[in-house]
Specification:
heterodimer; A: alpha/beta; Alpha-Beta Plaits; Glycerol-3-phosphate (1)-acyltransferase; seven-stranded mixed β-sheet; four-stranded antiparallel β-sheet; 15 helices; B: alpha+beta
């Protein structure tokens, strides 16, 4: 979740009320929490500003609303500074010269054959080992689809791509590619780290990934278009990064741009249990139930506006998300209200 | 240890150094430690400043030395603000601690 630094200077009236009632000073924190922010640190300052609060919130809009609210009530002046995690910032600074890929050879017959041999090693074994049970619903939603499609999912964990892959029907699995952050998975020579999973060639060949440059504009979609034109399907997480809040983050427009320009359907897949199983910010894995719930495909009529398309994709996943928040994971299947339509599928049955 | 918020802005020279050697940021943190202070958290930010650093130092003098030392290199401009945890400050205002007596 994005972090922000808020520097505040109190107005004279604000100062007076703080002296009369010191607890008022905690209003900054309270106001931010009203906007669903999580306060990481809170300081009173001597000098140019009176207050420094470091907090996390889902997006710029909420952060700005909270800052505005403070200005309207107690603060004379606020300075809101969007903050970037320092290691990520360092990678981004050197991104241009240090990333590599995409590798077009990943769609060749030999690359696909090697990937087929490594499917168990790279994808399935993790699901079998840690997701107990792993439930897949809605595979029938792929039945009417011919040709490539774009699969989208809610993104909360590094396990998401594995879970989506595991949940897909064989026809789609055999020719699908995953959009992955260039600044994490495609750093030149793994960014100096030796792990196999961080080497760009490995991610292109075995992980079936291709780099998406964050903030790279429409040029970053060129390779995705090329893959679709080759008949390949794509998996993209339109939130852009893993979410840690209970709300789904806003979707970026890349998927809509691709779907509209290339005339391909979008298949939403709602993933459950993975935020608990492999939370963001930790390398620990907590085995437990998880699931991939395939929703009905979305086909856009020609002339649909990009924001409308993005909203439709967002709503398709967010509706499920709201159901899950209210009723639990059992409400994730697309037909959950239909009688006895689902069954918990042991992961082992779905041999890759 | 007292807490300080150090707001820093890169100069042209600083931007060039950062682009060429991003790992320099960590080296600076080590130098800060060698001067008796400690960086507890650090963010790159967008807006009026480039970095926000939260630093613990034993005295104002250590912090002043640090600001002069880092500023003298010509790569950053620094604003240092002494910080007090809000809970402690509220208690002080309410007269519950020696500072507010």
């Amino acid at each position: 979740m994005p972090a922000y630094v808020l520097l505040t200077r109190l107005s004279t009236a604000g100062m007076r009320s703080v002296v009369a009632e010191p607890d008022k000073l905690r209003d900054v924190k309270r106001t931010l929490e009203e906007y669903e922010a999580s306060v990481l640190a809170d300081y009173h300052l001597l000098g140019k500003y009176n207050h420094c609060t470091i907090f996390e919130v889902s997006d710029n809009f909420r952060a700005q609303r909270a800052a505005l609210q403070l200005e309207l009530t107690s603060a004379e002046d606020t300075m809101l500074l969007p903050a970037i995690d320092l290691p990520l910032f360092q990678r981004m600074v050197s991104q241009e010269i240090r990333t590599e890929g995409p590798h077009e050879w990943q769609v060749s017959w030999w690359a696909r054959s090697i990937r087929f041999c490594f499917r168990w090693y790279h994808f399935s074994r993790h699901i079998w080992k840690h997701c107990k049970p792993f439930t897949v619903t809605g595979r029938e939603n792929f039945q009417g689809l011919k040709g490539p499609c774009i699969v989208v999912g809610n993104h909360t964990s590094h396990f998401d791509a594995l879970a989506i892959y595991h949940g897909l029907p064989q026809r789609i699995k055999s020719n699908i590619y995953f959009g992955a952050a260039a600044d994490r998975w495609f750093l030149k020579d793994g960014g100096g780290r030796k792990e196999l999973a961080l080497q760009p060639w490995y991610n292109s060949l075995i992980g079936a990934s291709f780099p998406i440059r964050r903030g790279g504009g429409s040029a970053t979609l060129d390779y995705s278009k090329w893959l679709l034109s080759q008949g390949a399907s794509l998996v993209i997480f339109p939130e852009g990064t893993r979410s840690t809040s209970r709300k789904m983050s806003r979707f970026k427009h890349g998927v809509s741009l691709l779907a509209l320009e290339m005339g391909v359907p979008v298949v939403p897949v709602y993933l459950t249990g993975l935020a608990r199983l492999r939370p963001k910010g930790t390398n620990q894995i907590f085995p437990g139930p998880a699931g991939a719930h395939i929703q009905p495909p979305i086909v856009f009529e020609p002339g649909t506006a990009v924001p409308d398309a993005t909203k439709r994709i967002y709503d398709a996943l967010n509706d499920v998300h709201q159901r899950v928040v209210e009723h639990g994971d059992v409400a994730a299947p697309w037909d959950w209200e239909a009688p006895i339509r689902r069954e918990a599928e042991p992961a082992q049955r779905d041999a890759a | 240890m007292a807490t300080y918020i150090m707001l820093s802005t890169l100069t042209d020279e600083g931007r060039k150094t950062l682009k060429e050697r991003p790992e320099r940021l960590q080296e600076v943190n080590k130098e800060v430690e060698s001067m008796g202070a400690r960086v507890t958290s650090q963010y790159a930010v967008m807006g009026g400043y480039d970095f926000v650093n939260i630093i613990e130092a034993p005295t104002n003098e250590v912090m002043a030395r640090l600001a002069v030392e880092l500023g003298s290199r010509g790569t950053i401009q620094i604003t240092t603000l002494p910080a007090i945890g809000v809970n402690e400050f509220v208690e002080m205002l309410a007269g519950k601690s020696p500072g507010g007596a």
